[in-house]
Write a structure and sequence with these properties.
Helices cover about 20% and strands about 25% of the residues. The chain is α/β, with parallel strands linked by helices. The radius of gyration is 19 Å and the shape is globular.
Length: about 210
């Protein structure tokens, strides 16, 4: 049973992956796509209501691989996951030992009235845990249409559960090219699963519903 003062927040993943689902190499992004990176920043910092903020969850290695030039980010609070760090890293606002604790930061007081969306920025294990969380509803996964040598990969996920959207508000639909690399933005939305009664099932089988 969830606490009475817990407020459910949408959990969303943001990543870019090449053909073999690689997302990084030696702590860096293997491609240079400024347009894609600006879309990334614009999306994770957008809020619907003035005064709200997004909680951005980072694995430790993802956090330390991010260039300092992107900070501070508008409308954002940052939480870094680590069991070994002794203090909150520079530029971050919070540190948690695990993913569940980070989500509770957003859903319980004092932040639950402030946080609008929870964004996940990796790495692989953090993405896996987010995909399995019941509040996760969207995956923003840019398709980098090229081959790169990577040592970190986006986890596989069931595309019958997370369905690719043909069009999605605010997301360009066409294939783009920059620095000789083609890419396209993609959004996968979780299918809502509803239980059906025996009577409903009979109606469906009859073709009358």
């Amino acid at each position: 049973m969830k606490p009475r003062d817990e407020v459910q927040k949408p959990i969303r993943l943001m990543a870019a992956a090449c053909r073999n689902m690689g997302i990084g190499k030696d702590g860096r992004i293997p491609w240079n796509l400024p347009t894609e990176f600006q879309f990334f920043l614009k999306t994770i910092t957008a809020v619907c209501k003035s005064g709200k903020k997004n909680l951005i969850i980072w694995g430790k290695y993802s956090w330390f691989s991010c260039p300092e030039s992107v900070f501070p980010m508008a409308n954002s609070l940052h939480v870094v996951l680590s069991k070994k760090l002794m203090s909150v890293p520079k530029r971050a606002h919070y540190m948690c030992e695990d993913f569940v604790s980070a989500v509770k930061l957003a859903s319980l007081p004092p932040l639950n009235d402030l946080i609008e969306t929870v964004w996940i920025l990796g790495g692989t294990q953090v993405y896996k845990e987010a995909l399995e969380h019941p509040w996760c509803d969207l995956i923003y996964l840019t398709d980098i249409m090229a081959d790169f040598d990577c040592d970190v990969f986006f986890p596989s996920f069931d595309q019958n559960v997370y369905r690719k959207q043909n069009k999605f508000p605010g997301v360009p639909n066409e294939i783009q090219e920059e620095n000789g690399i083609k890419f396209r933005f993609q959004v996968f939305m979780k299918e809502r699963v509803f239980s059906i009664t025996a009577d409903d099932e009979l109606w469906q089988r009859s073709g009358l519903k």
